[in-house]
User: Fold these one by one.
Assistant:
Number 1:
Amino acid sequence: MSRTIRAGLLPRRGLAAAVGAWLLLPVVLPAQERITLEDAVARALVRSPAMAQQEQGVLTARTGQRQAWGSFLPTLSVSSSGALRSQNRFDPTTDRVVQGSSDSYSAGISASYSLFQGGRRFAELDVADAEIMAAEASREDQRFQVTLDTENIFFEALRQSDLLEVERTRLEQAEQNLSMVRRRTEVGRATISDSLRARLELVNAEQAVLQAETATRAARFQLGRQIGEGIPVVPVAPESLEPGPLLLADAEIMQIAEASSPGVVAARAQAGAASAQVSAARTAYLPNLSLSSGYDWANQAASFSDGTTSWSLSLRASYPIFNGFQRGTTVERARFAQQVANLQEEDARLGARAEADAALQDIRTAERGIEIAEEALLVASEDLRVVRERYEVGVATVLDVIISQAAADEAAAGAVTARYDYWLARARLEAVLGREL
């Protein structure tokens, strides 16, 4: 009977293999580009919408600075006009139609310069400078965030590739287990239950391979999207994935996180811009002094001869005694915005410290996790070898082999996960500090 069952299993295995090959066909057809981590980060930064938005913010801030400098220059304008009328025209003074040309031509040039605005121009220039610093700091912070996202996606694609190899190894081991059971079945030393369990493990392994291939394909497509490609992109593993030293003491890392991390620098610049806005708002309580001049020409004929000219020069001072509480409202809003910006700066500093500490702890945990996972893999592999030998001599059951095989597969997946957990934690720490370690 065992021979009949074994013979019946063979067509099913061939059918499963054919179905599996058909399912795998779309995975291998599209061309897959290969890319290193450095190239992936560089391309992600170029095509990132968030980075483009930050670049636009820097450009806008620089435009505002140019406008602030332009307020120190005088304004200059020219004008001209011409009007033609009929010879007969109605004179509203006499209520009669009179004759005579009423054509007119004129031109003029005028200039004005604000002598004093209560220091507003200098305050607005300080605001513009602070906004440029804030925009550049925000851009730098976004650069590290995009880098972190790319590294996460890159290492996830690598992790899925390694997990796919683990599942393929599991499939090979399941095939070996089934062959071992068949040999024992041929000599009458295995039961029907042994064959069924070995076959079930093989089917589960095939299913796990298909799922791992799907996850790997999705991760590679995600990496392609991150770098601006519409095809799966295969990540090229770095030369070494072994943990390395940080080269900085924990105290230095925490100090850098609090003082110069991109998020903290951006928040500090925003607080500076809010403070400058308060100074600009207070200038409304001071008087304004301006100087203006002009030169005009007018004639009733289209000729520069026989025209009349005039010039003017005026000095004007103004001070709004009451403007409906607008000045006070503007100052209060600026003060409140400054208070919020200061709180955000403090929160950014505390957040950077907390994130740096969490990343450090994750790195330490991952380092120890790698050691534990490698030891577990070594023990599980040795246990699988021993159990198989015991099954060959009839001391253990196929269930023991399957349980040992599952433990070895889990240990292999744990070793893969622990290795990439370390590099993801290290990437998070670099994003917090704003520097490579």
Number 2:
Amino acid sequence: MRESNYNIYIPLTGSEDHLLIHGYSGAVDVVHAEVTEFLQNYQDKKSRRSNRITDPLVESLLKRGYLTERTFEEEKEYVRKLGRVLFDWQKKGTGFLLMPTYDCNLRCPYCYEKQLRRKGSEWMQKTMDRSTVDSAYEAMTLIQQSQNSQENAAKRITLYGGEPFLRQNLDIVTYIVEKGGGLGYAFSAITNGVELDNFQDLLGKGPGKVNWIQITLDGPPDIHDVRRRRADGSPTFADTASNIDEALKRGVTVYLRSNVDKSNLNRLPELSCIYQERGWVKSPNFIAYSNVVEMKPEEAGCENLLTCGQLMTAAQENKQSHPQMESIPTARNMQRRFILLLKGDGYPHFSPAFCGSHLGMYILDPYGDIYACWESVGEPIGRIGRYLPDLEMDGPMFELWRERAVIDFPECVSCKFVFLCGGGCATRAYTATQSLKSSICMDFPEAFCAAVPEAYAEYRKNKGAKG
């Protein structure tokens, strides 16, 4: 018997306790530091025992995976087999995004579309018509049937772009939502929110309505209006904030994101005060969070980039002097993955792939192309098929995206974070290596270990409030 190679130890702030997480059993426990020391020094039952280390505890540590009879090679083989089962099961689902247009009314300095604008304004401004929308819905039905995913069929469509809510596209977006509603779909959208006032009648709950949206505010007005300006250079903060007010009044869930780098990091406390002043934080439908700006290394402004771990550290330091920063959590996806593990509802929520681009996400653009990843739309590397004039998948590209599993990377199979990280973002890996068949770690272990104590404290707080 020995210590498992997949144990994750995370100290809890202001306590002698540690969070103990197992990377393939999914076990999560709070243990005293003596238990952590016992495991880390375990050698053939000769590790020092205190009164805290009882025989029943040792049996429990074995049962939950922290101690194991397997060799490291046997553990890795188990991870490979488990990962394959999880991957094959999760691939049965489908998720759809519709892009009415690539066009956008903003010119954000970090936007992925900067590369696409080289194709010219005429290419960018092409918009779906009703015939294209009809073909897109027919293709989605065929995709679900081909995936045998009727039981798991997605009944949600996310509107994406470009900017899906451009004033001039009100008619076609209304057609998309109304037609989808008739087919039982509910809608979400990723939008800058600047012209959302023109689409208020589409906002609401249930099929045929847009019931959650992601919007971005990058700081107080003087910061946001520089970073997220209109194409003509005019400001957007006031319009965006007003439209958030109205969306919340209509019961729409608003995920409010802040894209953070070194140039706006120190202004987040002011932004959190605005959230409180406008009363957004009192709404049960308001979820704010921050994440790092992502850009290619050669792009202007990349010298201001932060890693996720750096953002986590800075945010925690900010909260000590600015308690209102609690309203803008960081690393929300990492924290969510941990909470799903902690709740222990059924089998552990593991990620054999980094995101939906490898499991069943289909993004349909106005040209009749289908993409796997929303950061690669418009680029050959992300195109996995077409739906015009008929549905046809590009076999080699489809396989590259849909067969990218974390267990295919030897360095990942050996990692205790294997099913939490999922092998990293394929688009970032491609940028770094020119290959989709490569993993990319970034600073996931450090960021995850920094994010988890805050998530655990929030979980305990909410659990206590519910009695």
